[in-house]
Each structure stands twice: as structure tokens, then as C-alpha cells.
Amino acid sequence: MSEVRHHLLITLVHGTWPRGLFPRIFLFKQRVRGLMRRKRPGAPPFWFEEGSPFLARLTTELRDISHKMKPLLWSGENSIFERDKTAHVLAEHLSAEHAENRQATQLVIAHSHGGNIALRALHDSQKRNASQVDGADNANPLVVTLGTSFIEVHQADFGHRPLQIRGVVVLVTFIFVAAAALLLFKVSFPSFWDKESGFDAASVVFVLAVVLFCLLQVWWSLWWIWGRAAARQNQLDALKDATRLPRLLSAERFLVIRAVDDEASLALGLGTIVNYVTARSIAFPFSLLMLSVAILNFLIMFGLPRWAYVATLVGYLAFIIMLLGMLMVARSLHGRELAVSPMECQINTQSTPDAKGLSEIITLVRRTYVKSLRHGIYEHEDCAKAISDWVRSHVRHPPVEWEINAERNHS
């Protein structure tokens, strides 16, 4: 018997880390339980897996509409380029599915960063449609996003701030490399440090080593700050292209469902604040460090202990490293590539995408205490019903005869 044609084809797209922060450990535990033929008691399937409470509620709400659900599984890495690659896979899937069953309505339900994947897939479809000249009918799915923070990377002019931050990186690198080289030389030529006067081979080696080190440091600094400008621009262009979202030519087919105090949105918001504050703050301790070095060098001539001099420099150095680390972590929350991305990029995060005539935005509010995170908005008791009500307003359920005729034509 041939496969029954469904009127609604649903693709489920999960977000980042669907199996937790350490998916490999989770998969390893699953394999161990499988070998031992044991299942963890009371462990429900994930929201996009068969038998989950969310899919059960959605199936109940769509009971009179013939539908089929299928998850689109991907790595779930917090990577902009990984999400972009998955978006191309989703666009291919939707195109092939539409070509196979043109009478069916397609629906994409995407959670968290899966929403960015869904919109990128629409962007890819729009580019394909623009390149076609035969006017072929292309996929135009309904899209529902759950707790998605929509991210785009733009190029921006921040004045001298990027140069100052790169100067801090060069300074920190110089101090670490210089300290390591000095320690190595002190171990290799202990006689040089014990001599009170005189000029020997160790002195020559030391002077030449210092000169060579300074030349190499200057060359590396110039190459990294200015020589890699083209590479940084290419990286920035790639990030911009990988996060470019469509301006939703058919925004009436798009539903945004969000939650109050969503943990993922709060984390990205905090990352944006830390990114802004640390980027603006790095220039101040850098200038303060240069001034302090000059003051300490002056005071050391009047008896300032060397340990105080070293302790002050180490303290400033630790403070700058802390700021750089906070900056990298804050930027990486939006995608791991942004941790080392060019400072000329600006990260835009919004709870809704730019669109004209957006169909509907629903904010689900929990008025009772629950242990689950609000980012797991699919667990909200009204989530499945909100999706079903919205889908019904866009899908005209065909009579039973339509399904019978479709099955006969297919066979």
C-alpha cells in the first residue's frame, strides 16, 4: 500500500546543545545504558523526539488535520557557521519535500538558535527563487520560532577602539614572551648574572638575543595589526553573510513565540552588556599601565622596592588579561567564532526579526512556579495550542475526500 499523503508536513529544528552542555558525555551514557539494556527511569524524550509531551500535545491539538512530523537533527554546536550549514540542509529538505508533495502545507517549528537556522533557510530559498527564470513554484513554509534570539553580525566603525584592543593583546604577548625568554636565558647563562663587570661571550649572546627578540616582536606586531587587515575583513564578510536574515517577504506566515525572562535571552543580553563595557574599558587600564610604568620607573630610583614594582605590574597585567578573557567569553555566547572575530563587527540580537506585517507575536507567561527553565518554552501548557490555533488560521483542512483522492493519485 502506498504512503498516505499528509496535508501538513512539520519539520522540527532543535537549538544549541539539545542534549546539554556536554553532548558527548550524554551519548556515551546512552551507549553504556544500551549495552547494559537499562534505561534511566523517568527520563522523558527530548521535545523534538517521538513520544515527547510537546509532540503529544501538538498531535492532540492537530487531531483533525492529517500531519507528519520529522526532526532535522544537527550537531547543536554554538557556531555561526555550523548553523549556516544546517540552514542550507534545511532549505534543501524543504525544497525536496515541496517538490514531492506540492499540495501539502509545510510547517517549520524551530526552538532557540533553530529559529536562526529556519530564517537562514528562508533566505537561501529567496536567493534560489531570485535566480530561477522559469517561475517554478517553490517552498514557502509556515515558520514558528520558540524562544529564539535572532542574531545578525554587522560591520561598524568603532574609531580607535579596535586598534587599542589589539595593542593590549600585543603588550600582553610581549610581556609573557619576554619573561619566558629572560627566564630561559638566565637558566642557560647563569654566569652572566653573577658577573659584576666585564664583557664576555654571554654578554654578547644576551645583547644579540634582546635585539633579535625586539625585531621579531615589532615584525609580529605590525603583521598582526596591519598585515592581517584583509584576512579580518574576509572573516567579517563571512560572518555577515552567515547571519544575514531575510526581510521576510511573507511575514504573515511567520509566528514568534517567546517567554518572559527567557534564560537564553538574558544570557545573550548579559553578554552584549559585558562586551560593550569591557571593550570600552580596556583602553583605560592600558593607558593607566603605561603611566604607571613611567611613575614606577621614576620611584624605583628613590628606593622603591623591586618587589612592589613587580607586584604592581603583575596586578595590572592580570587585570588586563581578565578584561580580555571577559570580552572573549561575552562575544562567544553568540557564536564561538565571535570570540576571536574582528573587533569591527557589531552583534545585533533581537527577540523578533525585522519584518513588515509580521503575522503574530505571542508571549507566554508562567503564573505558577515550575522547576523547568523558561527557555524550554515548548513545555508551556499553552505552547502547542498557540501553534495549532495559528496554523489553523493559515491552513484550510481539506475534506476526507481530498486525502482519499490524493492517495489514489499517488498510487
Find the CATH topology of the largest domain.
Answer: Rossmann fold
Uncertain regions: pLDDT < 50 for 5+ in a row?
Answer: 398-411
Radius of gyration: 29 Å
What is the mean pLDDT?
80
State the CATH class of the largest domain: Alpha Beta
Write down how many β-strands occur, each being a DSSP E stretch of 2 or more residues.
8
Keywords:
single chain, alpha/beta, two-stranded antiparallel sheet, Rossmann fold, 11% strand, disordered C terminus, six-stranded parallel sheet, elongated, 2 domains, 411 residues
Question: What's this entry about, in short?
Answer:
The chain has 411 residues and is of the alpha/beta class. It is built from 13 helices and eight strands.
SSE layout:
Blueprint: E1 8-13, H1 23-35, H2 53-61, E2 67-72, H3 80-100, E3 105-111, H4 114-131, E4 142-146, E5 150-155, H5 161-188, H6 190-194, H7 201-227, H8 229-243, E6 254-259, H9 263-281, H10 283-300, H11 306-332, E7 345-350, E8 360-364, H12 383-392, H13 400-410
Parallel strand pairs: 1-2, 1-3, 3-4, 4-6, 6-8
Antiparallel strand pairs: 5-7
Helix pairs in contact: 2-12, 3-4, 5-7, 5-11, 9-11, 10-11
